[in-house]
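Whiteboard transcription, Tuesday session. T.W. wrote the C-alpha coordinates on the left side:
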Protein backbone atom coordinates (compact mmCIF):
# COMPACT_ATOMS: atom_id res chain seq x y z
CA UNK A 1 0.00 0.00 0.00
CA UNK A 2 2.83 2.40 0.77
CA UNK A 3 4.46 1.73 -2.62
CA UNK A 4 1.28 2.83 -4.34
CA UNK A 5 1.16 6.07 -2.37
CA UNK A 6 4.83 6.69 -3.04
CA UNK A 7 4.19 6.24 -6.76
CA UNK A 8 1.37 8.78 -6.68
CA UNK A 9 3.50 11.20 -4.70
CA UNK A 10 6.47 10.86 -7.03
CA UNK A 11 4.22 11.28 -10.07
CA UNK A 12 2.59 14.38 -8.55
CA UNK A 13 5.99 15.93 -7.77
CA UNK A 14 7.22 15.14 -11.29
CA UNK A 15 4.06 16.65 -12.77
CA UNK A 16 4.42 19.79 -10.67
CA UNK A 17 8.06 20.26 -11.70
CA UNK A 18 7.13 19.69 -15.35
CA UNK A 19 4.30 22.23 -15.11
CA UNK A 20 6.58 24.85 -13.51
CA UNK A 21 9.19 24.33 -16.25
CA UNK A 22 6.53 24.69 -18.95
CA UNK A 23 5.28 27.97 -17.47
CA UNK A 24 8.86 29.24 -17.20
CA UNK A 25 9.62 28.22 -20.81
CA UNK A 26 6.49 29.90 -22.15
CA UNK A 27 7.16 33.12 -20.25
CA UNK A 28 10.75 33.23 -21.53
CA UNK A 29 9.57 32.61 -25.10
CA UNK A 30 7.00 35.40 -24.89
CA UNK A 31 9.48 37.78 -23.26
CA UNK A 32 12.14 37.12 -25.91
CA UNK A 33 9.60 37.66 -28.67
CA UNK A 34 8.65 41.04 -27.25
CA UNK A 35 12.27 42.08 -26.86
CA UNK A 36 13.11 41.11 -30.43
CA UNK A 37 10.32 43.39 -31.67
CA UNK A 38 11.71 46.21 -29.56
CA UNK A 39 15.21 45.55 -30.88
CA UNK A 40 13.92 45.57 -34.47
CA UNK A 41 12.26 48.94 -33.92
CA UNK A 42 15.48 50.35 -32.46
CA UNK A 43 17.48 48.91 -35.34
CA UNK A 44 15.17 50.58 -37.84
CA UNK A 45 15.54 53.93 -36.05
CA UNK A 46 19.34 53.60 -36.00
CA UNK A 47 19.39 52.57 -39.65
CA UNK A 48 17.29 55.58 -40.67
CA UNK A 49 19.41 58.00 -38.66
CA UNK A 50 22.63 56.58 -40.16
CA UNK A 51 21.20 56.78 -43.67
CA UNK A 52 20.24 60.39 -42.98
CA UNK A 53 23.73 61.21 -41.71
CA UNK A 54 25.54 59.59 -44.63
CA UNK A 55 23.17 60.92 -47.28
CA UNK A 56 23.99 64.47 -46.13
CA UNK A 57 27.75 63.89 -46.46
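and on the right, the sequence the group agreed on:
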Amino acid sequence: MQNTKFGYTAFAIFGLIFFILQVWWLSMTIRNGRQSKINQNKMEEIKKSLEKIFSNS
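Someone added at the bottom: Residues 22-57 form one domain.
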